Amino acid sequence: MNEIPTLLLALLAGVALGALFFGGLWLTVRKGLSSQRLVLWFLGGLLLRMGIALVGFYVVADGHWERLLACLSGFILARIAVTRLTRTPPTHQPDSVLETTRAP
After folding, report:
1. Residue 58 is part of which domain span?
2. What distance in Å separates the CA atoms of residue 59 and residue 13, rounded to the nearest whole number?
3. If you average pLDDT over every residue of the chain, what do you get?
4. Range with the largest mean pLDDT of 30-34, 77-81, 93-97
5. What is the mean pLDDT of residues 19-40?
6. Which of 80, 64, 81 is nearest to 7 (CA)?
7. Is residue 11 domain-resident?
8. Given a cut of 60, is residue 59 above it in pLDDT?
9. What is the dihedral of CA 94, 99, 103, 104, to 10 degrees?
10. How many domains, in total, are found in the chain?
11. Given this model, what pLDDT does residue 96 score?
12. DSSP assignment of 30-57, as one string?
């Protein structure tokens, strides 16, 4: 019974690590594509994000596979959330051939 609060904290830590990782990835892509130092942005961002995530997983797990699994679950939940929050709206495409040939 004492393990449930610990696992919930590990899950929340995983969500925080995932939000940092995938939010940082989104920021890296946005800034990197408009920068003249593309390699520096992508390589630096990768090393920073990966380092934070790995150290975070190591600290949260503390040698317990259950905590590691809970943290990984939170990480995946954060990936889903960040992917949905940063999605760009689709551009309008005609529904049919008639719409493209119809005069205004």
Report:
1. 28-85
2. 10
3. 89
4. 77-81
5. 92
6. 64
7. no
8. yes
9. -60
10. 1
11. 60
12. HHHHTSS-HHHHHHHHHHHHHHHHHHHH
- What are the residues whose beta carbons fall under 8 Å from the beta carbon of 26, sequence distance 6 or more? 82, 86
- The answer to whether residue 38 sits within a structural domain is yes
Q: For the CA atoms of 54, 56, 57, 61, what is the dihedral angle to 10 degrees?
A: 140
What is the Cα–Cα distance from 27 to 9, expressed in whole angstroms? 26
Alpha helical stretches, state H, the chain? 3-33, 38-61, 65-85, 97-101
In a domain, residue 4? The reply is: no
Tokens of 28: 């890296």
- The pTM of this model reads 0.79
- Please tell me the distance from the alpha carbon of residue 44 to that of residue 29, in angstroms, as a whole number: 12
Residue 93 lies in a domain: no
Tokens of 83: 């992917």
CA 18 – CA 83 distance, rounded (Å): 11
